[in-house]
Design goal:
This protein has 371 residues and is of the alpha/beta class. It has one domain (4-367): Metal-dependent hydrolases (TIM Barrel), CATH 3.20.20.140. It is built from 14 helices and 20 strands. The protein has helices spanning 23-31, 62-71, 92-101, 124-129, 132-139, 154-157, 164-179, 193-201, 212-216, 219-223, 239-250, 285-295, 303-321, 353-356, and strands at residues 4-8, 10-15, 35-40, 48-50, 60-61, 79-81, 84-85, 106-109, 142-145, 185-187, 206-210, 257-259, 270-271, 274-275, 329-333, 337-338, 342-343, 349-350, 361-362, 365-367. The strands form 7 sheets. It has a 6-stranded parallel sheet. Strand 7 (84-85), helix 3 (92-101) and strand 8 form a beta-alpha-beta unit. Helix 3 runs parallel beside helix 5 and helix 7 packs parallel to helix 8. The longest helix has 19 residues, at 303-321. The protein is globular, with a radius of gyration of 19 Å. It starts with a strand and ends with a strand. The mean pLDDT is 97. It binds (4S)-2,6-dioxohexahydropyrimidine-4-carboxylic acid and zinc ion. Residues 16, 43, 115-117, 146, 232-233, 264, 277-278 line the site of (4S)-2,6-dioxohexahydropyrimidine-4-carboxylic acid.
Length: 371
Amino acid sequence: MTVQFLLPKWFDLHVHLRQGSNMVHYVQAQIEMACAGVLAMPNTLPPTAKILQQDDLPYWSLEEYRQMLLDAGADAFEQLIVPLYLTKDTTPNMIEQGAQSGLLQACKYYPPHGTTNSDHGRPLANFMENGVFQAMEEYGIVLCIHGEKHGLKGPDYFDSEINAERSFYEEDMVKLAVRFPKLKIVAEHMTTKEAVAFVKKGGNNIAGSITPQHLLYTVGNLVQGLRYHLYCLPLVKFNADLEALRQAVTDPKNTKFFAGTDSAPHTKKATECGCAAGCFTGGVAPQLYAEAFEEDGCDLGAPENQEIFKRFLCTNGPNFYGFKPSEKTFMLSKTPDVAKPLKMDNGETVTPLPVGLERPELAWSITDIQS
Ligand code: DOR
Ligand code: ZN
C-alpha cells in the first residue's frame, strides 16, 4: 500500500519572495506546496529596513513590503512575518517603535557582503554595542541570523577543518548568547555540526532552521558536474555535517529545529564570471524534506516518525515564533511526481532544485490541500 499521511499545512520560516512582477509566481509556488505562511526575507531591492513609510530613510518599510506581498497573493497565508533588515541606520528607537506598533516581530542580521543583497549589513559587534540587540531582547523581538563570519580570505572561508559558519558559531555566537541571554535567536539555514551543537546547547530562546538542500546534499554533489543550481550560501558542507543536521531533525525529542527553506529564486544563476547564490525549492520543499528523512533511515510509513516529521515541518516553528500551527491539512504521499521550472510573465524561468540537478523526479507528492 502507498504510504500517505495527513499533515497540518506548514510554515516556511525563511523564504525569499523578492519584488516586482515575479512575486506572484513565488507566492503561488509556496501556496501550491501547502505552505500556510511565511517569514519573507527583507533583502529586497531596496532593502526592507525601516518601520513606517514616512520615516526618512532610503529603504522600503515593513508596511510597504507587507502590502506588496499581500497584493501578490500572500493574503492567502495565515501568517506573514517580515523581519527588519539590520543596517547602519537601525536604532534602538526603531526597535521600540516597531515593537509598540505591533509591526515588528523579527530582525535579520546579514554579514556585510556575505551573500545576495547583503551589502547593507553591518558587523554583529555594531548591534551588540549600539543598543539594538538590547532593545530586541527587552521587547522580545526575534533575531534571525545568517551565521557566517564576514570578510574572511579564501582559505579560512571554506576548508575541511574551518569555514565561515563554524567560526561564526564558535566565536561570535557564543559572545552574543552570553551578552544577551534572553534574546530570541534563530540560527538560520544551518549547515554545520558546530551550528547544530550551538543550538542544542542553548536555552529555549535559541532555535535553528534547516533547508531541504542542506539535509540532502554535500559539497560533493555541488562540485560533481559543478551543479550551480545547488550553489547557495552558506554552502552545502561535508558528510559529518549532513549527519549532524539529519540527526537533529529526526530526533524524537526535537523541539528546536524547524523548516525554513531559504528558497531563493534567481532568474539568472550563472553570470559572466560567477554565480548567484540561492537554491529555489518553491513547489517541492515538503517532498524534499520527506526524502531527506527517509535517506536518514526514518521510515515515514511509521506513525511515530510521521509525528517527528510533523514537528519539524509544521509545529516547532510556530511554537518558537509564538503563533498557532495551522488547523488546515494536506496529504503527503509516497507517489512519484516530477518537478518543473517555474515560468515568469516575461518568459524567464526559475529552476527548482531537483531539476537543477538533472534529476527532476520526486519520490513524494502533495495532494488534498485544504484552502
Ligand atoms: O543562497 C542564498 N541566497 N543565501 C542567502 O543568504 C540569500 C539568498 C538570496 O537572497 O538569493
Ligand atoms: Zn535566505
